[in-house]
Amino acid sequence: MPNRLLSKSKYLNGLQCPRYLWIACNEPGKIPEPDTATQHIFDQGHLVGELAKKLFPGGIDVPADDFMGNIALTKELLGQRKPLFEAGILSGRTYSRIDILNPVNENEWDIIEVKSSTSVKEVNLHDVSFQKLCLENSGLKIRKCFLAYINNQYVRNGEVNPEELFTIQDVTGEVTATGEGIRDRITQMFGNIDAPVCPAMAIGPYCSNPYDCPLTDCWEGLPEHSVFTLYYGGKKSHELYGRDVLNITDIPAGYKLNDKQRIQCACVVNGQPYIDAVSIKQFLSSLQYPLYFLDFETINPAVPLFDGARPYQQIPFQFSLHVQATSDAEAQHYWHLADGPQDPRPELLIQLHDVIGNEGSIVVYNQSFEQGVLSDLGKAHPEYCEWSNTIISRLVDLIVPFRSFHYYHPTQKGSASIKAVLPAITGHGYEGLAIAEGGEASLRYLDITYGDVPPEERARTRDDLLAYCGLDTEGMVLIIGQLKEVAR
Question: What pTM does this model have?
Fold first, then answer.
């Protein structure tokens, strides 16, 4: 029965895409299981939700594992006039589970929706407006609606303090405005759910707004260089697709493209890379030897694990450093990977300080990330503040010649990320690595550090982390070498 109900999650599915809603209700087996990264987000949300309950002492958990049991128990507990956690409300064919339902005054209730985000988003207002409707249809009187979300300025000091971790914002007015027309939308959604055939939907901006849709089959059949690979295509990509232009080689002459997009299209047509040798030489001439190629791997938990850390702050647990003394010297590799559940930053700082000299460029890829990590390290450990500022002043961002399209290869497909650039310019890539992406590296580190992982798996994962992070910096060495060749 639950699949044929309209829950708050399915209501949000329906707002995003009628096809997504129909499949969620009629053929839920077609929706892929969440991947590791998505599951981690869910797990973080669960942890945040548990902490939010501490804001309402004396509250009652309503077990959620039994669907109808949860609904029946909620009805019984409402009369006790205590805060209820995960209360289930079924009204007709609409169903909602409320994070926190808090009694106020003589016969009113407040809705408190808990989010692991750091601000109020429009989708949250739609979420709460649906909950409010379900509750009111069940005869409950709702006084106010609140959103409890993460205060990203909170700094942990000892045990996590929920009073400081959360910002609780009154969103009653916004929810009321968002709820205008909700009954008509729900009626339309039930018509969709009950339709015998799944509605057809073209690709549109809603495919990734407010969330990435898991139904990726809509994208099957597009050409390799589709208009959706256009560099920062955005609205242009959707506009071209709406005009039945699928391949960027078929974009009409005179269509408004910027210089980078024109370079991309020309490269696909002629099958050759674009090389601005003069600009590349200028970039290379800015490098001062010895060169230090630096990359961090980080974790950024919603609830900070260590004193002196903020929610979602990037906490480095690993670095890789390749050092090239002269332009023709072989690069030497240095690395550090934290071991154990303690705060990894102090030891990482000691190790990094010991291997980075006082002169030479520090080459990174996408500078804002490393700069932010170094800045936070200096603030958290004031004895290193001056040093970290000096390191930041020496950073050189290797993404610049690629983001500026001084070099562009058609296999990059509109991307200037190192994952696209490294194989395009050097022929080397991340294929075959057990860990091949930064988010995956973070999750695997969390697993082996805080999870119940056998020793052999832990050792293997550490090797995989070293290989991945090491390739990030070795790759930068190879990219610089190849830039020298193409700019001759």
Answer: 0.94
Q: How far apart are the first and last CA of the chain?
A: 69
Determine the 3-state secondary structure of 361 from DSSP: coil
Looking at residue 437, its amino acid is E
**pLDDT tens digits, 44-60:** 999 999 999 999 999 99
Contacting residues for 58 by C-beta, under 8 A, at least 6 apart:
82, 83
Which one, of 258, 270, 433, lies nearest residue 422 by Cα? 433
Beta strands 291-299 and 274-275, pairing class:
unpaired
What whole-number distance in Å separates Cα of residue 210 and Cα of residue 183? 21
Q: Please state, as a whole number, how many other Cβ atoms lie within 10 Å of the Cβ of residue 459.
A: 12
Rounded distance between C-alpha atoms, residue 16 and residue 334, angstroms: 47
Beta strand 108-114 pairing with 94-104: antiparallel
For the record, the structure tokens of 279 come out as 């600009």
What pLDDT does residue 2 have? 54
Alpha-carbon distance of 405 to 402, in angstroms, equals 5
Q: Are 99 and 114 in contact (CB under 8 A)?
A: yes
Question: What DSSP string describes 268-299?
Answer: HHH---EE-HHHHHHHHHT--SSEEEEEEEEE
Q: What is the pLDDT of residues 59-109, one digit of tens each?
A: 999 998 999 999 999 999 999 999 999 999 999 999 999 999 999 999 999
Mean pLDDT computed over every residue of the chain? 96
pLDDT digits (tens, 9 = 90+) for 297-306: 999 999 999 9
Query: Which pLDDT belongs to residue 488?
Result: 85
Cβ atoms 44, 22 nearer than 8 A: no
User: Angle 115-121-125 (CA atoms, 0-180°, nearest 5)?
Assistant: 85
**Cβ of 331: how many Cβ atoms within 10 Å?**
20
Residue corresponding to tokens 């500078």? 367
User: What pLDDT does residue 1 have?
Assistant: 45
- Count CB-CB contacts under 10 A for residue 60: 17
Does residue 297 contact residue 449 with C-beta atoms inside 8 Å? no
